[in-house]
Automatic annotation (TrEMBL):
Protein name: Probable Cys-Gly metallodipeptidase DUG1
UniProt similarity note: Belongs to the peptidase M20A family.
Protein's organism: Hanseniaspora guilliermondii
Lineage: Eukaryota, Fungi, Dikarya, Ascomycota, Saccharomycotina
Residues in the signal sequence: none
Coiled-coil regions listed: none
GO BP annotations, alphabetical order: glutathione catabolic process; proteolysis
Gene Ontology molecular function: identical protein binding; metal ion binding; metallodipeptidase activity; omega peptidase activity
Length: 481
């Protein structure tokens, strides 16, 4: 760690002293099975929101509100979005902090080494293991740990903070976009005590690798589609009807094969023509990033990479579109043999979007392509291709005021300049914040590239959890300068 400025040194020391109590807070937060996608666990999302609100109350946050987002469907309420503020000084900048409280499904039967909702502290390796440790409960608590350290030392934060914590991010952030739009009006929550928002900070992503910290200035979007092929009114016996009837599964498999080839090339005409060309400035960013094919293979647990150099890997991961086939509904998937012809089957696929792909134009290209390919089959079945949901890509200036402050903070805490990265995944709400609050967004990762978010044995290194609070606090100090 670089030489720490005098105003930050006591904060850093206090965060070190609080390590055990901050681990205990993470253990408590992880114990809630807040899986937003599982309707049977919806109440756990509410309980976790109440716990996070209690922490905000202990930190003397004001105007804490749980916003009711209504129902996902009749009888299934949406968990709340928490908005809270800390500080209303007219002479300080105001920063919105976004994080999410919900997590992905997890079970010991999935292959976890320990119970996923019981925090396991591997002291030998310095790891904190549990669902949500890095995505996104650990980083959320890193913000609160940093604030607690300030208050224990009777130190004021250099900026005003507004917290926005949701509980449906892993299920599409249902209701959040409309809430942000409503509360971004002149009389809404975000502008009730300030004239403008100076920055939005998100820590819901990760370093590219395991040794070099990063800042993220771009995210791919995601358009999700389904192809539904329907034939007979009920499933049929292949011994009786096989070879005599148009089989929906056969049609579907042929349609899916027209979307992308084994080299990852999208086969839908007109898609690649929309992609923004690579500039020389962008090429130089990729050259300077410390990364290797070996690191990529380690993160994928395989040797199946389609490329032989880091530049091509990173470009296809971050700034080129990709098409992935995800699954087929109504297909037989259990063990053993089942000689059934499905009456209806639905294939799911997504396209990760990048600048300058227009979402509506992409939808038209996809649906037109699938319709034309189905017509070629001359099938007696019926077919519908449709968009299920979409989320826009996001791209920012990695050299603006907020990124510059985050870069200084990263170099201070980690002793090295951060890689400037983009992400292949999506955080759709990023663009909503940018447009509605008319403010820049910065993504400041706390965790490492091997944390295993959405996977088994999800973890955050203890060093990253502790340093996360130092990093986020330093960012606020540099932004306030």
């Amino acid at each position: 760690m670089s030489s720490v400025p005098e105003q930050l040194k006591p904060i850093f020391d206090q965060l070190d002293k609080n390590t055990d109590s901050n681990i205990a807070k993470l253990a408590k937060a992880i114990s809630f099975k807040a899986v937003s996608a599982d309707e049977s666990l919806r109440q756990e999302c509410f309980k976790k929101a109440d716990y996070i609100q209690s922490l905000l109350e202990e930190l003397n946050c004001t105007d804490i509100q749980q916003f009711d987002l209504g129902e996902e469907k009749p009888g299934l309420p949406l968990p709340p979005v928490i908005l809270a503020r800390l500080g209303t000084s007219p002479t300080k900048k105001t920063v919105v902090v976004y994080a999410h409280m919900d997590v992905q499904p997890a079970s010991i039967e999935d292959g976890w080494d320990t119970e996923p909702f019981v925090l396991h502290h591997d002291k030998e390796k310095g790891l904190l293991i549990g669902r949500g440790a890095t995505d996104d409960t650990g980083p959320l608590l890193a913000w609160l740990n940093m604030i607690e350290a300030h208050q224990q030392l009777n130190k004021e934060l250099p900026v005003n903070l507004i917290f926005c914590f949701e509980t449906m991010e892993e299920s599409g952030s249902i209701g959040l976009e409309n809430l942000i739009k409503e509360q971004s009006q002149v009389s809404g929550y975000f502008y009730k005590t300030c004239s403008k928002i100076d920055a939005v900070a998100i820590s819901d992503n990760y370093w590219l690798g395991t040794t070099t910290p990063a800042l993220t200035y771009g995210l791919r979007g995601c358009n999700y589609y389904q192809i539904k092929v329907s034939g007979p009114k009920a499933d049929l016996h292949s011994g009786v009807f096989g070879g005599c009837i148009a089989e929906p599964m056969v049609d579907l498999v042929q349609l899916l094969s027209t979307l992308v080839n084994s080299q990852g090339e999208i086969l839908i005409p007109g898609v690649k023509e929309m992609v923004a060309p690579v500039t020389e400035e962008e090429k130089n960013i990729y050259k300077s990033i410390k990364y290797s094919i070996e690191e990529f293979n380690e993160s994928s647990n395989s040797n199946t990479c389609l490329f032989d150099n880091k530049e091509d890997v990173l470009m296809h991961r971050w700034r080129m579109p990709s098409l992935s086939v995800h699954g087929i509904e109504n297909a037989f998937s259990g063990p053993g043999a089942k000689t059934v012809i499905p009456a209806t089957c639905t294939g799911k696929f997504s396209i990760r979007t990048v600048p300058h792909i227009d979402s509506a134009k992409l939808d038209a290209l996809v649906i037109d392509h699938v319709n034309k390919e189905f017509a070629k089959l001359n099938s007696k079945n019926t077919m519908v291709c449709e968009l299920i949901h979409d989320g826009a890509y996001w791209y920012s200036d990695p050299y603006n005021e907020s990124f510059t402050a985050a870069s200084k903070a990263t170099e201070l805490v980690w002793g090295q300049k951060p890689d400037l990265t983009r992400e292949g995944g999506s955080i759709p709400i990023t663009l909503t914040f940018e447009e509605q609050l008319k403010s820049s967004v910065v993504l400041i990762p706390c965790g490492r590239g091997n944390d295993g978010a959405h996977s088994i044995n999800e973890k955050i290194d203890l060093e990253n959890y502790v340093n996360g609070g130092k990093l986020l606090g330093s960012y606020l100090y540099y932004l306030a300068e």
